[in-house]
Design goal:
This protein has 609 residues and is an alpha/beta fold. The chain has 19 helices and 25 strands. Bound molecules: 2-deoxy-2-amino glucitol-6-phosphate (AGP).
């Protein structure tokens, strides 16, 4: 998820593009660049690091060009670097392109272009685009772009400029956002509305396949068939901050609603065409090494640690290898029993958490192989691990982690199935059954998101309580821990999660009249047990909201309120079960007037011990 901006007009393009990129930094901020066209031709400047590095590099340069494109990056293919930063140019240096998205067939296209004499400079998927445009260019940039996209597989919002037609930008979108901003004698393009709001509130919203030819005094849009179409003007009423949040009140709510997309992106290219095998290209272990694993240790902090707990249940169940899960700040000092036959999995959204990084180094020092599950390309954890599984959640701005957690669960499922298929601990049919369900999960996640009203209602009713309890068994217990952390960290309610069977050994003493209890009962094999645990807390007049899988209506007899999640494979239920808990924490915090995105005492990435 990157941010792209374009301008054609009579004002200097560079400052306008930089201003727009600043508004899109929430989409990615590991490198940036601009390309402009002036009387001397094409000028390109790009820098690794935050936008400020690019501004420094541009300072003092006379850039009065009035046509240009810009990009702020969230690396997917090729680590953050000056060379991998956008814009990328064609072999002849006449065409520049910025791109948001992933070109899935870039390796084949690169080989084909290389065999025709094209020379590539970067590690990115994007660089094939300007080379293809050059290949198809016969004097008409629109035509060259149309031919180019007919060869691309994947998602993209592309902007291209050419020395030969210096008065325009040609742009196209497929599965990635792109909007046109309409001005007087100038026009704009951007990934998202925040980049345009300073200049205009009149926009064209583009459909997949639309090709835009943008000039200072004219905007021509052709649909996927090539036919010129007239768009309706979309008048933006949001203010800038609202726009960055895509119209949501907080980044947390926006990121909760981005989960269906994040789940789909994290699965992309990782399930074989026949749908019966997991493909993890970033894992470089030999079949012998995989068979030689005697123990797995998952280590992380906070929400990432909770994802590891789900990983333990799933890996032990599907791969039959003993799995320990350790809080990183404990792992690094407890003299862990780790050796060359141990696979250590470190999980970190930011990839920069100090305790997790130290745990990784400790594991390596003791001879273990380390797999990193992280959301940030080339982060420290990614750079120091032996193997990586990237989660494609996109930038997570809100301190409370949501979409990173569910994509970490996807990574746990993929790792478990990958190990199972290499160690033959599962029948191919069972692997396919889970993969089929996993591929459909984003649809069911959307169903859960569309049913937030009863959760909001419960939150409004109980948001003034200072204590709350989460109970569950098995996988539900692991998810209950995450639900209680979400509630604690943004609403400041003292929430605790317990293995439901443990209540009667002490904690039940804390269950008093009207105290909210969130009971997770999604696991078929443990359902009856959970029903009796709910009866236990109800007997002390607790107020119970239960989460159950569709069809398990018996729970209605014992709980005050029931939230049903769509039917799915029991091991996959955590991805659907946590979403109502994220929403519950969010609305509780909103009703208590908390600063949801920046909760007190917390930071998004904890880089100190
Ligand atoms: C979760 O909402 C918190 N922000 C925090 O617990 C977080 O999960 C923890 O600090 C680990 O961060 P990481 O995934 O970036 O390593």
């Amino acid at each position: 998820m990157c941010g792209v901006v374009g301008y054609v007009g009579s004002s200097p393009a560079t400052p306008i593009i930089l201003e727009g990129l600043k508004k899109l930094e929430y989409r990615g901020y590991d490198s940036s660049g601009v390309a402009v066209l002036d009387k001397d031709g094409l000028k390109v400047e790009k820098k690794m690091g935050r936008l400020a590095e690019l501004e420094k590099a541009l300072a003092g340069r006379e850039l009065d060009a009035t046509v240009g494109i810009g990009h702020t990056r969230w690396a997917t293919h090729g680590r953050p670097s000056d060379v991998n930063a956008h814009p990328h140019t064609s072999n002849d240096g006449k065409i520049a392109v910025v791109h948001n998205g992933i070109i899935e067939n870039y390796l084949q296209l690169r080989e084909w272009l290389t065999s025709r004499g094209h020379v590539f400079k970067s590690e990115t998927d994007t660089e094939v685009i300007p080379h293809l445009i050059e290949h198809f260019y016969k004097g008409d940039l629109v035509e060259a772009v149309q031919k180019t996209v007919s060869h691309l597989e994947g998602s993209y919002a592309i902007m291209a400029i050419s020395v030969d037609q210096p008065d325009r930008i040609v742009a196209v979108r497929q599965d990635m956002p792109l909007v046109v901003g309409l001005g007087e004698g100038e026009n704009f393009l951007a990934s998202d509305i925040p980049a345009l709001l300073k200049y205009t509130r009149n926009c064209y919203l583009l459909n997949d396949g639309d090709v835009v030819e943008l000039r200072a005094d004219q905007v021509v849009i052709r649909d996927i068939t090539g036919k010129i179409v007239q768009k309706e003007i979309f008048k933006v009423t949001w203010d800038a901050e609202e726009a960055e949040k895509g119209g949501y009140d907080h980044f947390m709510l926006k990121e909760i609603h981005e989960q269906p997309r994040a789940l789909r992106d994290t699965l992309k290219g990782r399930i074989s065409h026949k749908g019966d095998k997991v493909i993890l290209e970033e894992i470089n272990m030999t079949p012998e090494q995989i068979k030689g694993i005697k123990k797995i240790v998952i280590t992380a902090c906070g929400t990432a640690y909770h994802a590891g707990l789900v990983g333990k249940y799933v890996i032990e169940q599907l791969v039959r290898i003993p799995v320990e899960v350790d809080i990183a700040s404990e792992f690094r000092y407890r003299d862990p029993i780790i050796d060359k036959d141990t696979l250590v999995v470190v999980v970190s959204q930011s990839g920069e958490t100090a305790d997790t990084l130290a745990a990784l180094r400790e594991a390596r020092r003791r001879g273990a192989r380390v797999v990193a599950v992280t959301n940030v390309i080339a982060s420290s954890v990614a750079r120091e691990a032996d193997d990586i599984i990237y989660t494609w959640a996109g930038p997570e701005i809100s301190v409370a982690s949501t979409k990173a957690y569910t994509t970490q669960l996807v990574a746990m499922y993929l790792l478990a199935l990958y190990l199972a298929q290499h160690r033959n601990t599962m029948a191919a049919g069972n692997i396919k059954e889970i993969l089929d369900e996993l591929k459909e999960l984003y649809v069911k996640a959307q169903d859960v998101l569309d049913n937030e009203a009863p959760i909001k209602e419960f939150a409004e009713k109980y948001s003034q309580h200072e204590d709350a309890f989460f109970i569950g068994r098995g996988l539900d217990y692991a998810v209950a821990l995450e639900g209680s952390l979400k509630l604690k960290e943004i609403s400041y309610i003292h929430a605790e999660a317990y293995a439901a069977g443990e209540l009667k050994h002490g904690t039940l003493a804390l269950i008093v009249e009207n105290i909210p209890v969130i009971a997770l009962a999604t696991q078929q094999s443990l359902f009856e047990k959970m029903v009796s645990n709910i009866k236990e807390v109800k007997a002390r007049d607790a107020r119970v909201i239960a989460l159950a899988m569709e069809g398990h209506t018996e729970v209605e007899k014992v709980a005050d309120q029931v939230i049903y999640i769509p039917k799915t494979h029991p091991v996959l239920a955590p991805i659907l079960t946590v979403i109502p808990l994220q929403l519950l924490a969010y609305y509780m915090a909103v009703y208590r007037g908390c600063d949801v995105d920046k909760p007190r005492n917390l930071a998004k990435s904890v880089t100190v011990e």
